[in-house]
Specification:
The structure holds two protein chains of two kinds.
Chain A: H1 2-23, H2 27-47, H3 51-76, H4 92-113, H5 120-123, E1 128-129, E2 135-136, H6 147-158, H7 160-192, E3 196-198
Antiparallel strand pairs in A: 1-2
Helix pairs in contact in A: 1-2, 2-3
Chain B: H1 17-52, H2 68-77, H3 89-107, E1 123-126, E2 129-132, H4 141-162, H5 166-197, H6 202-208, H7 222-225, H8 229-241, H9 253-256, H10 266-291, H11 306-331, H12 337-366, H13 378-414, E3 417-419, H14 425-438
Antiparallel strand pairs in B: 1-2
Helix pairs in contact in B: 1-10, 1-11, 2-10, 3-4, 3-10, 4-5, 5-8, 5-12, 8-10, 8-12, 10-11, 12-13
Chain lengths: 199, 439
Amino acid sequence: MVDAVVFAVSAAIILGGAFGVILSSHPVRAALSLIASFFGVAVLFVLQEAHFLALVQVVVYGGAVVVLFLFVIMLLGVDRSEDLRFEPLAGQRVAAGLVGLMVLALILGGLFLSGPGGDEGAVALSGQPTQNGTLELEPNNPDADDDVDRLADDLFTRNLLAFEATALLLTIATVGAVVLVRNRGAEDLVVDEPGSATH
Amino acid sequence: MTLAVGDPYLADGTVDFGDVLLAAGKAVVAFAVLLVAVMLMVWFERKVVGRLQNRLGPTVAGPFGLFQTLADGIKLFFKEDIIPSRADRFVFQLAPYLSLVPAFLTFTIIPIAGDFNGENDGRVTMFGRETFLQVADLPVGILFFLAMSSLAVYGIMLAGWSSGSKYPLLGSIRASAQAISYEAALGLSLASVLLVSGSLSTNEIVNSQAGSGFGGFVPNWNLIVTGFVPFVVFLIAGTAELNRPPFDLVEAEQEIVGGYHTEYSSIRFAMFFLAEFMNTVTMAAIIVTLFFGGPAGPTFGSIIPGWLWGFIWFFSKLLVFLFTFVWFRATLPRLRYDQLMDLGWKLLIPLSLGWLLLLAAIRLVRNGRIDLLDDGGLVAETALVISVSVGILLLGAFLLSMAATAARTERLASRGLTAVAVSDPVVASSSRADGKEVE
């Protein structure tokens, strides 16, 4: 009962936020709607007892990512309303709608066509299938009782390579961003640099 | 939905009317305690800063000027509420709430009293139910603090942006840059505490610090167990996160008027003010919880019950840090913007990261996961690991500074300039002027 009410409310917040993101003509309002949507997802995580994921969702997406979005919006001065009737790429909206419908069909098809034991596909990713086909996610440390322990166990043993690869990818992205910015602004940088002197 | 919360009154998995009443009662009491604490804190800050600057501070309203804050609140409440014509009305009105709500929510995870001696674990019996004296003991409590402090940025950011004016926008951009920079150092120094305590729940963190440690009389506080450095980093990063002096560039009067709340008036301004002081009280409480054992402490005699001793300990420790924050404000000059960024990124983050790795290595030795010497004894083994780790970290720092120096020399050479020592401010500033002449 409580579950259903919480789910309904947070689903409404998520959907409302999502529509707000694509329908509001104002970049800052769109970013605000995005926060609402992320927050709703965090509540759903709590409902599934994934407390750690819920708070990571708020810290990383709700906190850091959208703050950076807003930062860029404010610094670039694009915080004006845009005319949504203007379409920069011809036919882009129709294509987006079609792809969206296809993804929706795929998800709904996956949901309704698969039977009770239909999650073997997910089992291949991690964990062992049990008798009734549900996923058992406790292979290494059966003593682990909360989601933080289990997540750490999974992340730092079985999926360590993927974890390290992701870290490397993010580092490359950061270094790349720095290199791109440095080359363009090198002229101005030297003047402001402390400790530079003429011959 | 089963309730995976640590609080014992919810442990039976069922929720009846009494449980709901208890939860609501605790929330109301926490809110009242925080409001009263804020009221006294504003008075305390004005009084102490006054005395430190050889003034009297508030004296007129009530005994010792105690009701000054109340008077100011009433005054603000009855002032005219002005919304600038260029403001984004909806966001402008929303922003104060976005500041205030996270400020209050953070306080809910702090254990403010309770008896942590023996097997009590901070449990007290209220209305026939065993419970902790904190609003909620989340299994990931301390992450909740980080989440709320990252959400609190929105209030400041959107306030500055929606005012439709230059100075507030500058203030809010400064605020968000500062918050993002110092959150990393804050989180990394916090990770050291989590490493020793082995839990994210605030109640567990306090519990792990109860009792006495080395020698039987030294407290088992994380301050000592984590070796001081995380505490120092946390205190500095926490002060920066609060936008309090000496890190108050967000509202530097001489440069950008009032910063993000320049255009705010009446009760909306009061809400920002309230949120700021709530955050100060909460940050002091978090420091006490993480590093100084929170309400844990010895009890003397049976006249005062154990849980009240907890409150006394918590409150006295809290007062020390509230005074420290005021002391900072009265004595330290404001940092320059580049100094602020240098301190955060180049000193605090590498320091706390290195310290975390060191602590983790020591922990592995003590758990017997690293065994370099055959039967060398725990002390020799620990010493070896510490020296190797410190050696690696120092080597890394040395290589990094070499690389930075080489890159700078190369950049300057390509512009026909020579590098001089940065540490000499006179040369540095004069050379900067020279550099402009070259342009």
